[in-house]
Amino acid sequence: MPWKYWRWSADHPLPLGASERAAEGQAVRAGDIVAAGTTYGTPVRVAGARRLGVTSEDLTRVMRVPVGGDVERRTVIARTGRRFARAVSSPIAGRVIHQRADGDLYIAPVVGRWVVRSTLDGEVTRSDDACVTVEGSAWALQGVAAYGPDAIGEIALAVDGPTAELHPSRIDVRLRDRILIGGARATAESITRAHACGVAAVVAGAAPAGGLRVVYGEEATASGATTGPDAPTVLCLIGFGVAPLPREVFAPLVALVGARAAVHTASARLFVFAPENAGDFAQGAPSLALSDDWLGARPMEEHLSLAGVTRFASEIEADAVSTNDGPVPVANVLAFDAPRTPQS
Amino acid sequence: MTTSTELVASVEIAHEARTERIPPGAADGAVLRVIPGDDVRVAALLGRDPQLARALAFGALSGGASLVALVGTHDGRTFVERGAFLRDAQPDLIVALATDRRDADGLVELAEALRFGCAQQRPLPHILVSADEAIRDRIAASCPANTIEALPDVRTPAGREALVARLRAVRRRAQGDVVLRDEALEAAARAMAVEAKADVVLLDVTGGATSVIHARPDGAVVGIHERLGVGAAADRVVARAGLDRVRRWIPRAVEAPALLERVFNRARWPDAIPASVLALSLEMALAREAIAHVLADAERAGMSLEAAWAAPLVVLTGRLAQLPRAAQSLIVAMDVFGATGPTLVSRAPDDALVAAGALAARGRVATLPTIDPIAIVAEMWPRRSAVVRITDSSGVIEERVARGSFVLVPTKGVVEIVMPGTTVRPRAEHLELGVVIDARGRPLSLPPRDAERIPTLARWNSALDVLPAEAR
Predict the structure, then answer these.
(1) What is the CA angle A103-A107-A109, rounded to 5?
(2) N or C: fewer beta carbons within 10 Å in chain B?
(3) Which chain A positions have a beta carbon within 8 Å of B236's beta carbon?
(4) What is the distance between the alpha carbons of residues B287 and B229, in angstroms, rounded to a whole number?
């Protein structure tokens, strides 16, 4: 089924330099800061254990500033002895970022700060310097690819129907911090305008692949792209080009307008924080058909019947299903919730 | 636990989303599975010898792994940059290489950056160290939580084999008793070369990967396997080659944005079928660029392709062999694989060859299935007009060849050709298409402007009757 109320897990990978993290077991809401930290400039290596005349294992015992601690210039980081003291002091203001196996220390200046926000209402189940994982219950819609940073906001409808294209003229600053629901296609112009107007994210059946590459760079692939916080967030629910949304997907989105929601880019999911009994959203997965020339996909709302082995224009012979537009290869018909990554 | 191949009743071959069983039907006993394998991300910590990066690239390509980060002792990055780079790369395996004792301090610095960046990664990547024992100990001290494994010098064949074996073990991961597709293909190529007593090149293009394998009659095999394909990895081909290089092979005017949408949709639609001629042309274009980039990467990694270019037998498998017309498979291979001598090109459209290779990889004597010979390809670049003599059951045909010509001579029954400048006389019992004389020269150059490019492609395609009428 496309919409599912479930206990989901969302990983939030952290950049280097985390200084604060939510504790395991802590309750968080989507949008809450679960980790904060700093970005570093060029570090300086400082002789630690060697300078003090201690072993590297003993260095921790004599350190006055632990790894991760902030220091000012000339701050004593470690010290031994009383009358004939030996000390290691910081040559720069910054943070002690790393202790080497040989007992030397790295100190780096702080050049920026970052925060990571939760994309789920729930509980922190993992919290370390690499990742904060939050588990919680929500309605969710699995997309095919997402681009940009995670986003949190209220759902707002920006199209008249599931087959409509998201037009830039429908977007203005009143939609700031909202998650916009587009229809069959979110154009590159509407994505950039939405970003300029402070819209949190755009969710649509499809987005133009060329436009995504313009916005996210040549490295953007069909699997999505995670970026820093200064880029727009786009969630493609079905594919690329044009893909009208099935009724089973669009109707709940209309019903959920105004609900708090989040886009988790890494898993390409839209989480909506509404009660389990908010509506009869959990319906069977509709079928989707890839167009013959692969230029888009469409929901198959007609009755499907097998047409047997059919010879297509490309001369490929394959099992097909009958549709109003002619036969479609069975391989090109997938359920909305079918896995879209190959088996390994 | 490994199933004895004597007990194996059928072989199951995994594709993007579907699975084929050889022989088809319900399994009547143990089933041996052939899988593409996980994508293994390898990061390298390298000493100052420039050969190390090439040797590692060769090993990674042979093992079907993706080289996601190369960090050198003299790369000019700061400690923080190295740590962030390795963290973002999320490697499954680290390979540390140093041949010079003077690299010890530099390599330890890189190991410290690794611990700084990836200490909390789950699971922690193992570190394979190909270096002096003292360096290995110092790396172990810098990364005490990581498992350290010794590796022979990867610049030697033994070292490369050890690396490939390790990479394949990681690619199999918790999959149990399985054979990797590239292992099966290498075993099949080896068996064919031994049987034919001649060099064999096997070109395999699937949705998610492309393999180029060269097997010699003495049993030596070199394979290059990369995550570039015509399906799930189609977007990677475009990211690697650029859209224009893919687009140039399509024999009609196509807008780049629309082409990219097709590629992205195909990448996220496992096992999709190209129902239209345009989609089929795109699949062929992606296959060309995938093979071309695998060959280019192999050369960059120091693999000599001279013997492969001269191989008298070329076998096509995977999606490349499943194109509806034999001429389509042939022209894709010919456009990017520049053989230096006359070559018999065959294709194995079903998975029987892969299944036989999987059993051979497990040590069972392979009974190779019959494969379909498509054509004898005579590639030449004559200084002046030359004559190629073709003998088949209808008699002798003499074809005069000038530079730039590209012709198909249909044949019947047993075929033999005599070419100027070579004593090799390729012979085949039966050819699906006939003899193709290719004097287009290498590397192939396509005009950049559509007005000249499309007629050129149309001429080549019509010479072999490649595409259905719609695209002409």
Answers:
(1) 175
(2) N
(3) 221
(4) 7
From CA B337, how far away is CA B331, in angstroms rounded?
10
> Residue for token digits 């780049």?
B256
Tell me which DSSP letter residue B278 carries: H
Q: Is B109 helix (H, G, I), strand (E, B) or coil?
A: helix
Contact (Cβ atoms closer than 8 angstroms) between residue B446 and residue B244? no
Give me the residues of A, 41-60, that contact B with CB < 8 A: 41-43, 45
Half-sphere CA count of B30, side-chain side, radius 13 A: 12
CB B270 to CB A290 under 8 A? no
CB B35 to CB A42 under 8 A? no
Closest to A16 (Cβ–Cβ): which among B80, B141, B232? B80
CA–CA separation, A139 vs A118, rounded Å? 16
A189 touches chain B (CB under 8 A): no
SS3 B63: coil
- Residues of chain A contacting residue B275, judged by C-beta atoms under 8 Å apart: 292-293, 312-314, 316, 328-329, 332
Phi-psi region of B217 (alpha: psi -120 to 50; beta: other; left: phi over 0): alpha
Per-position DSSP letters for A277-323, written without gaps between them: TS-S---PPPEEEE-TTSSBEEEE-SPPEEEEEEE-TTS-EEEEEE-
CB B56 within 8 A of CB B44: yes
Residue among B18, B78, B270 minimizing CB distance to A340:
B270
Q: Are B404 and B437 in contact (CB under 8 A)?
A: no
The beta-carbon neighbor of B268 closest among A15, A222, A329 is A222
Calculate helix-pair angle for B50-62, B277-300, nearest 10 degrees: 140
Interatomic CA distance for residues A206 and A145, integer angstroms:
9
* B42: helix, strand or coil: strand
**Dist. CA B196–CA B313, nearest whole Å:** 9
A69 phi, psi to nearest 5 deg: -80, 150
Q: How much is the pTM?
A: 0.94
- ipTM, interface predicted TM-score of the complex: 0.94
Do residues A222 and B264 make contact, with C-beta atoms less than 8 angstroms apart? yes
Per-residue pLDDT of chain B (472 residues; tens, 9 = 90+): 566 666 778 999 999 989 999 888 777 788 899 999 999 999 999 999 989 999 999 999 999 999 999 999 999 999 999 999 999 999 999 999 998 889 999 999 999 999 999 999 999 999 999 999 999 999 999 999 999 999 999 999 999 999 999 999 999 987 778 999 999 999 999 999 999 999 999 999 999 999 999 999 999 999 999 999 999 999 999 999 999 999 999 999 999 999 999 999 999 999 999 999 999 999 999 999 999 999 999 999 999 999 999 999 999 999 999 999 999 999 999 999 988 888 999 999 989 999 999 999 988 776 888 899 999 999 888 888 888 999 999 999 998 988 989 999 999 999 999 888 777 788 889 999 999 999 998 888 899 899 999 999 999 999 999 998 764 4
Phi, psi at A227, each rounded to 5°: -130, -175
- Asked if A312 is an interface residue toward chain B (Cβ–Cβ < 8 A), one would say yes
Query: Tokens 């198959």 — which residue?
Result: A300
CB B166 within 8 A of CB B158: no
**Gap between the Cα atoms of A143 and A270, Å rounded:** 7
CA distance A252 to A115: 32
Cα dihedral sign for B338, B342, B343, B344? positive
Q: Please tell me which of the candidates B17, B270, B325 has its beta carbon nearest to residue A315.
A: B325
What value does the CA radius of gyration of chain A take, rounded to a whole number of Å?
A: 26
CA-based nearest residue in chain B for residue A208: B261
For residue B435, which amino acid is it? V
| Nearest alpha carbon to residue B359 among B95, B90, B3, B17 | B3
Which helix (H) or strand (E) element contains residue B355?
helix B352-361
Nearest-CA distance A27 → chain B (Å): 23
